[in-house]
C-alpha cells in the first residue's frame, strides 16, 4: 500500500472544504467558488457508498425544485454539478473521507487517497436508509428486499410488491413502482399516509396501489427470494400476502459520525445542530442538508443551507486571516 502524500502548502490547503457532493455540497461548492474561496468538494464519506450527485440521483421524479417543473434527480444533480465546475477555483473529487481533526487553526482531512488542510469545513454528508427491522429483512436483502425503487423497481415488472412506510417517500416510491409492478401495497402502521397532497391524490387515483392502514409487517418470508409478508392483522381473511418484493421506506439515519468525531454537537436523533447561519458549535465548522436538525428535509432547503454556510465561511476566512 502506498503512503499518503505529504501535505504541500499551498497546493493541499483550502479555504473551504465540503464533505459530501450531493446537491447541498455541490451548491455550497459553487457558491464558495463565486465568493473567491479556494474550494474542495469531496464526494464520499466513510459511512456512505454514494458519491457525486448524492441520494437525489436515486429519485425518478423531482417536481418541487424551483425553476424546474419536472426533471429526474440525476438531471438536477448534474445541472448543479456542472454549475459548480464552471468555476476555476473549485475542485470536485470522488474520495472517501475517513478522518477529520483539528490542526491548529485549521482542519485536517484524511481520505482513502490523500490528505488535505482547510480553513473552514462543511458537513453535507446526508443520510442513509433505515433498514427494515422485522425477521427476514436482513436475510432477504437483495433477494427481493430493497430500499430504492428507481434502482430495483424494473426488476419487479408484472409482479406484486409492498412498500413499508407511511411518509411522502413511500408514496413517491409507490408511484414509480406502479409503472412496473402489477400491484403495489403500501403498508402503513399509522392511521394515515402522510404524503404531500399531490402525491396523496396520485396514489388514490392509481388502481395498482392499495394502502393498508394501521398495519404492521411482522415477518418477510421466503426461501431463496421473497415469497410473502406476514401482517399483524387480517387482510381479506388472511394474515399473509403473497408477493415478490418488499421496499423499505421507514426513514433515514444521519451520517454524522465524522462530525461527531470532531466534537460537533448532535441532537437526540444524531442530527448535527446548526443555527440560522449553518454554523455548528465549533468555530469554522458548518453543516447543511439532510444531516442537520432542520425539520423540513428537502433538496431546496439543503441547497439554501449550503449557500448560507458558504457565505459565512467566506466571512470567517476574511475575518480570521488564517495562513496556509
UniProtKB/TrEMBL annotation:
The keyword Membrane applies. GO terms for molecular function: oxidoreductase activity. InterPro entries: FAD/NAD-bd_sf (IPR036188), FAD/NAD-binding_dom (IPR023753), Ferredoxin-NADP_redctase_2 (IPR050097). Keywords: Flavoprotein, Membrane, Oxidoreductase, Transmembrane, Transmembrane helix. The chain crosses the membrane at residues 12-33. Residues 14-306 form the FAD/NAD(P)-binding domain. The keyword Glycoprotein does not apply. PANTHER family: THIOREDOXIN REDUCTASE 1-RELATED-RELATED. This is Thioredoxin-disulfide reductase. It comes from Candidatus Buchananbacteria bacterium CG10_big_fil_rev_8_21_14_0_10_42_9. The lineage of its organism: Bacteria, Candidatus Buchananiibacteriota.
Amino acid at each position: 500500500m502506498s503512503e499518503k502524500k505529504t501535505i504541500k502548502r499551498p497546493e493541499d490547503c483550502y479555504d473551504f472544504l465540503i464533505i459530501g457532493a450531493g446537491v447541498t455540497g455541490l451548491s455550497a461548492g459553487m457558491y464558495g467558488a463565486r465568493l473567491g474561496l479556494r474550494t474542495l468538494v469531496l464526494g464520499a464519506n466513510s459511512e456512505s457508498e454514494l458519491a457525486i450527485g448524492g441520494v437525489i440521483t436515486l429519485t425518478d421524479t423531482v417536481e418541487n425544485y424551483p425553476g424546474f417543473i419536472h426533471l429526474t434527480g440525476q438531471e438536477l444533480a448534474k445541472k448543479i454539478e456542472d454549475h459548480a465546475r464552471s468555476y476555476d477555483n473549485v475542485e470536485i473529487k470522488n474520495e472517501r473521507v475517513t478522518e477529520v481533526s483539528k490542526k491548529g487553526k485549521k482542519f485536517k482531512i484524511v481520505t482513502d487517497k490523500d490528505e488535505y488542510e482547510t480553513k473552514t469545513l462543511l458537513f453535507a454528508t446526508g443520510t442513509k436508509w433505515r433498514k427494515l427491522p422485522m425477521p427476514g429483512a436482513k436475510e432477504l436483502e437483495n433477494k427481493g428486499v430493497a430500499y430504492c425503487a428507481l434502482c430495483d423497481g424494473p426488476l419487479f415488472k408484472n409482479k406484486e410488491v409492498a412498500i413499508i412506510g407511511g411518509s411522502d417517500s413511500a408514496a413517491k416510491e409507490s408511484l414509480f413502482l406502479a409503472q412496473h409492478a402489477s400491484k403495489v401495497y403500501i403498508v402503513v402502521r399509522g392511521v394515515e399516509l402522510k404524503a404531500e397532497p399531490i402525491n396523496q391524490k396520485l396514489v388514490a387515483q392509481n388502481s395498482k396501489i392499495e394502502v393498508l392502514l394501521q398495519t404492521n409487517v411482522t415477518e418477510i418470508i421466503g426461501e431463496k427470494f421473497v415469497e410473502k409478508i406476514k401482517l399483524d392483522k387480517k387482510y381479506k381473511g388472511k394474515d399473509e400476502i403473497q408477493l415478490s418484493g418488499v421496499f423499505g421506506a421507514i426513514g433515514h439515519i444521519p451520517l454524522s459520525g465524522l462530525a461527531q468525531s470532531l466534537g460537533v454537537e448532535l441532537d437526540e436523533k444524531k442530527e448535527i445542530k446548526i443555527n440560522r447561519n449553518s454554523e455548528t458549535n465549533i468555530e469554522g465548522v458548518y453543516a447543511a442538508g439532510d444531516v442537520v436538525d432542520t425539520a423540513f428535509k428537502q433538496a431546496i432547503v439543503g441547497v439554501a443551507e449550503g449557500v448560507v454556510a458558504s457565505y459565512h465561511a467566506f466571512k470567517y476566512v476574511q475575518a480570521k486571516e488564517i495562513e496556509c
